[in-house]
Design brief:
Mean pLDDT: 92
Number of helices: 17
Order of helices and strands: EHEHEHHEHEHEHEHEHEHHEHEHHHHH
Low-confidence stretches: 369-384
Radius of gyration: 21 Å
Helix content: 40-55%
Structural class: alpha/beta
Length: 384
């Protein structure tokens, strides 16, 4: 894909220069990086320490009063005008940092805020932060069931858009690796399911890769993302479940799906877990065996895996379809295209070039018996 040289028209406020970066933010930075590859972008990365007393005081005041203090953001001067301002926030408390950036609204014709995690049950406590969203033209949420409740607070500004993935980074083609990891599980897990998988590892020699420590930060976001992608591409089965599935005290009855589903599909895994039945998941994962339904607390996951292991053709079809559909529908380029339409902006040629590249990669995921000539003609470099 060609590199662009354009006058920047997009201003992104990034959280990538935090002194402590939580793993979930790495997907946000990945999105920002893809946008930078396919559009004309300036990225502001102010240095910020979220562990300071100043930050804690600013958050506490915002929870309980209408006052907004600078949480410790250094002064940044926006010198030129932009067509669009974009802020990607992990949760509503990040809006304090956006608010501390003076003059951005006057310098930017349009403004979009994307918030990763906003649960309806928490909105009342977040009202002091959410009121800051009134400065934006559009607010994008990853949680579809939070749209209407938040619209009642800030006006009709909210729209749903699911997360995406750098489908090029996660694509196993054209030179797929051997899937030496039998089951890969990241983050929250069911104790009963985990116990069964541990037994499979001990008694059957299965390679079960799972978290054994509680990590609150990453050392290098790009290295973390590359390592994660390379592990998933070497995994046969990948555990996925709706967000905060084990925390109904936080999410209430809300069912939402996050990045893991897109990452697992992009890497060509067979995804095992609880299907998010929320009226939206089915629209974005509407092909056969996009995932295999396994209840969250499932001591019989070994039986499910045994059945799948006896049908390698079904596995292969599922893997290839997952990769193909992700490349054609769920790369960050498609999400950026959607956001540009919201802002009334035309896409630059680099976005079309990436889509063509994605389509070439998708051809490599065609069924094996139709793939030989495609592989010869695709001219796609090896993706690490």
């Amino acid at each position: 894909m060609k590199q662009k040289i354009e006058t920047p028209r997009i201003l992104i406020l990034s959280q990538r220069n935090l002194t402590q970066i939580q793993p979930f933010r790495c997907a946000h930075f990945e999105f920002e990086d893809v946008i930078s590859q396919i559009d004309a972008v300036d990225i502001l990365t102010p240095r910020f320490d979220p562990s300071t007393q100043r930050q804690a005081i600013a958050k506490k005041i915002a929870y309980h009063t209408p006052f907004r203090l600078n949480p410790g953001m250094p002064h940044e001067e926006i010198e030129r005008e932009y067509d669009l301002f974009l802020a990607i926030c992990g949760d509503p408390t990040d809006l304090l940092r956006v608010h501390a950036l003076k003059g951005w609204r006057k310098k930017c014709k349009k403004a979009i805020c994307l918030i990763d995690e906003v649960w309806v049950k928490q909105m009342n406590s977040y009202r002091g932060f959410l009121s800051l969203l009134k400065e934006f033209d559009t607010v994008i949420l990853y949680y579809s069931q939070s749209i209407d409740p938040l619209n009642k607070i800030i006006g009709q500004k909210c729209v749903f858009m699911p997360p995406g993935v750098d489908a090029v980074r996660f694509c196993p083609y054209p030179n797929p690796y051997e899937r030496v990891i039998d089951v890969y599980s990241v983050g929250r897990r069911s104790a009963s399911t985990h116990h069964t998988l541990l037994r499979m590892a001990a008694e059957e020699g299965a390679f079960y890769l799972h978290d054994s420590t509680s990590a609150s930060q990453v050392l290098n976001p790009i290295e973390h993302r590359n390592l994660f992608a390379n592990i998933v591409k070497r995994s046969r089965y990948f555990i996925v479940n709706p967000g905060l599935i084990d925390r109904p005290d936080v999410r209430g009855d809300q069912i939402e799906f996050g990045n893991r589903y897109f990452e697992g599909a992009a890497a060509g895994t067979v995804m095992l877990g609880e299907r998010p039945r929320n009226g939206q998941f089915e629209k974005y994962f509407d092909w056969p065996d996009a995932m295999i339904d396994v209840p969250y607390n499932s001591p019989n996951i070994d039986d499910v895996i045994a059945v799948l292991n006896r049908d390698p053709e079904r596995q292969e079809k599922a893997r290839r379809k997952n990769v193909e559909q992700t490349l054609l529908r769920h790369d960050w380029a498609y999400r950026w295209e959607t956001m540009l339409a919201m802002a009334g902006l035309e896409a630059l040629p680099q976005l079309s070039e990436r889509k063509v590249f994605l389509q070439k990669l998708a051809k490599l995921a065609l069924p094996i018996h139709t793939n030989s000539q495609v592989e010869a003609d695709a001219d796609v470099p090896c993706i690490q």
